[in-house]
Specification:
The chain is built from nine helices and twelve strands. Strands 2-1-3-4-5 form a five-stranded parallel beta sheet, with helices on both faces. Strands 7-9-10-12-11 form a five-stranded mixed beta sheet, with helices on one face. It has helices spanning 17-29, 42-52, 68-77, 93-102, 116-180, 185-217, 227-237, 263-279, 337-347, and strands spanning 8-13, 34-39, 56-59, 84-88, 106-109, 222-224, 248-255, 260-262, 289-296, 300-307, 351-357, 361-369. With 374 residues, the chain is an alpha/beta fold. The two termini are 36 Å apart.
């Protein structure tokens, strides 16, 4: 037996006990370690494929109620990508060619079984090459699909960013011109406030672009996650956002096990969802709330973000995670936030879902697998 090849399980479609015995002896004499099973009809052949899990199929051509061509087609229909070698009596060259066209890997005459061991080894190597080629092609197709996605996003990014960056810049330049010609201190102060607002808008867009770029390019950096610390840091950064003082924020973290994931992406998810809840709170309500509930076990972390803000129209929900999509005119954000959330969650091999309705509020449910460092 060749080094690196374990015992081979061989399924023989054969109705002659003597021929089956000769095949076994020939292969063992050729130094092959084998486990064989003989079947002689369609039903037993199918059972052998599913329960015996053979590495190789050897098939006589003609049995009383079943033949090699039917067996080949059955293997193909079941996507059984294992070597299929015809082992039969005298056949014509035309018949042999037809068998190869049908998917047989080789054929060996019973009068020349000395070639069978080498035919099996060659067929196994060929299948391994085919398998490697198939994996490579699948990988290439996946990369091409990802490249098309990146190119489409880049086109969209360039178009939208050019607007989202230039608009506040143009506002600042226009306001500076007005300031130069204004002497009333109160009006000048108002212009300064508008300039500051435009600069913040510009800064928010740049931060989102950086988050988008880092999430797309950086590999995962798995570390132990402290959700209490991340939520606390995020709330501190957002404590001066307009409207935050009107919202009752409640945080619940229940960690039954240590949790490991990418700190940066967890922080990005937190920042976007918490800031969204603040941006879109309903100022017509007197009991505005935002609840953050996090539960962790050894398998995953479940993150729930619930608010009673303005909500999102049901028709808009299928597009809510699209790049640059805005579900409301209440804010002039870039529309990148929720797209980045979805991309970050997917990078962490997690899932995110949303429930929302106008006037009622929004719930985000996120599940992220625990990825302990091994």
């Amino acid at each position: 037996m060749e080094e690196g090849i374990d015992m081979l399980k061989i399924l023989c479609l054969e109705d002659d006990d003597i021929d089956f015995e000769i095949i076994n002896m020939t292969l063992e004499k050729g130094g092959m370690e084998i486990e064989t099973r003989m079947v002689n009809c369609r039903e037993k052949f199918l059972e052998g494929l599913t329960t015996f899990n053979p590495d190789v199929i050897l098939s006589d051509h003609s049995l009383p109620q079943f033949n090699s061509i039917e067996a080949l087609r059955l293997c193909r229909s079941l996507k059984a990508h294992i070597p299929f070698i015809l082992v039969t009596g005298a056949v014509s060259d035309e018949f042999a060619v037809n068998c190869i066209k049908e998917g047989a890997d080789d054929y060996v005459l019973k009068s020349n079984l000395n070639r069978l061991a080498s035919a099996i080894k060659s067929a196994l190597k060929h299948k391994e090459t085919e398998k490697a080629k198939m994996i490579a092609m699948t990988s290439l197709a996946s990369r091409n699909e990802e490249l098309l996605k990146i190119n489409a996003e880049l086109d969209s990014l360039v178009y939208s960013v050019s607007h989202n960056l230039r608009a506040p810049l143009m506002s600042v330049l226009g306001l500076i011109t007005l300031v130069k010609n204004e002497t009333n201190p109160s009006v000048v102060h108002h212009y300064h406030e508008l300039i500051e607002k435009s600069v913040h808008k510009l800064d928010d867009t740049l931060k989102e672009i950086l988050d988008y770029s880092r999430n797309a390019r950086l590999d995962l950096q798995i570390v132990k996650i402290d959700f209490n610390e991340i939520v606390k840091d995020t709330l501190e950064k957002l404590q001066y956002m307009s409207g935050v003082e009107n919202i009752n924020i409640h945080v619940s973290v229940n960690e039954e096990a240590a949790f490991y994931s990418d700190h940066y992406r967890i922080s990005v998810i937190m920042n976007n969802l918490i800031s969204n809840a603040i941006k879109y709170y309903d100022d017509s309500k007197t009991n505005c709330f935002f609840n953050i509930s996090i539960t962790v076990d050894d398998k995953k972390a479940k993150l729930l973000f619930e608010d009673n803000g303005i909500g999102i129209d049901t028709d808009a929900l299928p597009r809510i995670f699209n790049m640059f999509f805005r579900a409301t005119n209440k804010t002039t954000g870039s529309g990148l936030g929720l797209y980045i959330v979805k991309e970050a969650v997917e990078k962490l091999h997690g899932t995110v879902t949303i429930e929302s309705s106008i006037g009622e509020g929004t719930i985000f449910n996120i599940e992220i697998p625990n990825q302990p460092v091994t």
